[in-house]
Write a structure and sequence with these properties.
Number of strands: 11
Number of helices: 4
Oligomer: single chain
Radius of gyration: 20 Å
């Protein structure tokens, strides 16, 4: 459910931006994203959506707080010098808390299995590596936000067509496909890209792995 809500929020953000710029082009209204501190949205939005998707964590909460403080400073609502002095101590505190309590908030590399059998793997301000051995791959959702996810399926089996939904936002996703399968990629790149380095199998009737990839200031590699 959280994964779906996060995807809806990302979709709504692009929908609003598209309608805003489209209306401005047609002269219907004045729309401008480049306000003072607009760049902080690249920190605030992913961290906020991470809170919805993955729950409370040190890094997504800390990134959200830092982003909001920087935005308030850019808007002149708070003293920029005070913010500058607080950011470094805040980062040190977050690192210390992560070291002490990291195990309580770290996702297991096995991923979360949904009711439809698909497994969810995510990394937010961190890394996540998962490998499947001698088991049937049933599909996955992979999300990397300011982090990286590696999904190794070379030891898995795939007897029918499967789907991987991949999202890389300021992060990277590496997928090692199972042996002897066809790979078809559908990519939506926004200042990013997806690379398919797999070779076609010798069997023309081999099952197909469909990869739906969204890269926003990030990248995905299928090997």
């Amino acid at each position: 459910m959280r994964q779906r809500v996060g995807n809806i929020l990302f979709g709504l953000a692009f929908l609003v931006a598209g309608l805003g710029f489209g209306g401005q082009a047609l002269g219907l209204w004045n729309f401008n994203l480049f306000f003072s501190g607009w760049w902080t949205l690249f920190l605030i939005v992913p961290c906020f959506i991470s809170l919805i998707r993955d729950g409370l964590g040190f890094w997504n909460l800390g990134g959200l707080v830092i982003g909001v403080l920087l935005l308030l400073s850019a808007q002149g609502l708070v003293n920029g010098r005070v913010i500058g002095r607080l950011i470094f101590p805040l980062i040190l505190v977050l690192i210390g808390l992560q070291i002490i309590f990291g195990g309580m908030f770290r996702r297991q590399s096995t991923g979360h299995v949904r009711q439809d059998g698909q497994v969810e793997y995510s990394a937010v301000f961190s890394g996540n590596r998962a490998s499947l051995y001698h088991e049937e791959f049933t599909g996955a959702n992979v999300t990397a936000v300011f982090g990286g996810v590696t999904l190794d399926l070379r030891g898995a089996t795939m007897t029918e067509d499967r789907v991987i939904n991949s999202s890389a936002i300021f992060g990277g996703v590496d997928i090692f496909a199972p042996e002897g399968v066809k790979v078809k990629v559908s990519s939506v790149p926004v200042f990013g890209g997806t690379s398919n380095k797999t070779l076609p199998p010798s069997d023309p009737n081999a099952p197909t792995l469909f990869v739906n990839s969204v890269c926003i200031f990030g990248g995905a590699d299928i090997k």
